[in-house]
Amino acid sequence: MIIAIDGPTASGKGTVAAGVAKHFGLKRLDTGSLYRAVGLALLDARVDLADEARAVAAARALDLNAIDEARIRTSQAGAAASKVAAIPGVRAALLQAQRAFAADPAGAVLDGRDIGTVICPDAEVKLFVTASLQARARRRFGELRGRGEPVTFEQVEAQIAERDARDTNRTDAPLLKAADAHLLDTTDLSIEAAVEAALRIVEAARLRRGAT
């Protein structure tokens, strides 16, 4: 069973994906971390994020098992990820790695921005997780301040709005809800409630397919 979970920044899709994966005993891939790692590699090398050749090279050299989770979760890495993700060559370089992960016969949960539309269009279950801009900004602000980043709520809100625009308007694999995806709005949901809502959606889909 492949479960595709898409959504914008700080919508809760990663938390939902982790909960769903744990419940069903499936492995999980946060595909956004791949783009964050590529963006971070360019930042570390002091390379222009618009340098397509260097960005593609970084994507091709990426080791999924060597991603520094702590360093890729900064606001700077997030902004860099959105910029390199708009480069078609980078997306193409990471496409096969994501599909190979999803091809495991045991099944998998993948979360990102184009899982249900591009990476795994035939996924058995698709969710599109969203929330209001204000709710997402509050969540991300709390995360960043918790890590000691000197940011204001207004800065975080503006950064998320900018990333939303970039992700939804890019030419290659823009962020959008797949036609057959189930919408899950987490604006007013706790972590536990969001995961429970997602599990209900997945279980209902499995029953419709005759799964046991």
Search tags:
9 helices, five-stranded parallel sheet, about 210 residues, alpha/beta
Describe the fold and architecture:
The protein has 212 residues and is of the alpha/beta class. The protein has a single domain, classed as P-loop containing nucleotide triphosphate hydrolases (Rossmann fold), CATH 3.40.50.300. The protein is 54% helix and 11% strand. It has nine helices and five strands. Helix 2 crosses helix 3 (52-61), helix 3 packs parallel to helix 5 (88-102) and helix 7 (133-146) packs across helix 8. The longest helix is centred in the C-terminal third of the chain and has 18 residues, at 191-208. The relative contact order is 0.22. The model has no long low-confidence stretch (mean pLDDT 94).
Entry summary:
By secondary structure, this protein is of the alpha/beta class. The chain is built from 9 helices and 5 strands; from the N terminus they run E-H-E-H-H-H-H-E-H-E-H-H-E-H. It has a single domain (2-206), classed as Rossmann fold.
